[in-house]
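Can you please make up a whole protein chain along with its backbone structure tokens because I've never seen that pairing?
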Amino acid sequence: MEDHAGSLDHSDTSGPPGPTLARALGAWDGASLTIGAVIGTGIFLTAGDVARALPHPALVLTAWLVGGLLVLAGALSYAEMGAMFPRAGGLYHFLREAWGPLPGFLYGWTCLLVIMTGGIAAIAVGFGEYLGALVPVFSSQATWFAVGAWRVSGAQGAALIAIAGLTAANHFGVREGAGIQNLFTLAKLAAIGALVVGGLVVAPAAHVSWSAPLPANPWSLAAPFGVALIATLWTYDGWYAVTFSAGEMRSPQHDLPRGLLLGVVVVVLAYALLNLVYLRALGVATLSGTTRAAEGAARALFGDGAARAMTAAVAVSAFGCLAATILYSSRVYQPMAADGVFFPSVARIHPHWRTPAAALWLQSGWAAVLALTGSYTQLFTYVTFGGVLFHVAAGLALFRLRATRPDAPRPYRAWGWPWVPSLFVMGMALLTLNTLQSAPRESLLGLLAIAAGGPAYAAWRRSARVPAPKS
């Protein structure tokens, strides 16, 4: 790692010599990680939000495709920086190399505070709720134990078991962790493929009026299209996952761009085809009123048995998404610690398993606390604004790096420069403004939570400069 100005160093870790992360992942693992991190429960649940904002079948599909194009533009941008800095950490390095160590730290700080840990908690509890629909002991209505007003439900119990089990699997090697998430990625793609193929072959269960008239004033669609686009972009979240695991790819300069772009393209196609099936099964009016689109579509097309099978498929999808998220998100804290701005113990790589074991357990421990308290929902609302803001800064990082390091090695260059990266930055900026307008209080509190990392950063910087006592 270079200091803020100097030659690039593509080593796996910074800091003292020692065990390094194992470079064991290929392009397929990168694509699988991307797919697994994105497809969780969102696409099975949020399609109704898009249809409610845009009650026209053509506009619904357009919103999903436009969201996918923005994500693809981001993937093309991040692929260049990921190939430039093939180390574990993703956006931490993009922000640090372009804007300095403090922005990189604040991103990692916010990831640990809630962006990643809150996401893990939410996915894990969501998995528990779907599992509880099949196994009543894990139901959110089942109480495992209670102390006063505080209770632990079956869904929370399932979340804790899933978090602990997947963290242990990742502790014992990146290939073990990747193997589990690859398996569940294949399983969720098989379930989606079955619903898509079946849903497109059978006769539609609802009338879809593709030629329905649009509003006479097209500008009246701007606000609802923005609302719909936000819903699609949150459902696409996680598309940047593989950049966090660049330090564990065998040939990151080549496999990272391939895996990232292939994964994003597969997700965009899957989302578009699933929404086409939802429309054929339910129609816009019914789709806009449902919160479980996949189950509703399966029931309308194939009956109650298929709907129950889809419930199981969503549980599998959530578990696979949890596996992917635990794997990639834990990689941001180790380089922070190696740079001297986090707990020193987190910088260590396990000497035998060659995984960031301390980072894994720290992240999952806090995620488990959030899952037990249920506070992740509120915290996640608070950092929504900041999370999008980091994407704006990371997108602009590509422009800054092109300007300040024009001769730096770039094994991959973003296609469509500068228009495609500009599209991504503008899309994220508009999303930031929309979030600030729609939730000003939460946005301000989120910024305060991020700013709280400033004193922590200063404290770690001071402690890193203090010489070790002589023996």
About this structure: Residues 1-16 have pLDDT under 50 and may be disordered. The domain at 27-207+238-463 is CATH 1.20.1740.10 (Amino acid/polyamine transporter I). The first helix runs from residue 27 to 38. The chain has one domain: 27-207+238-463.
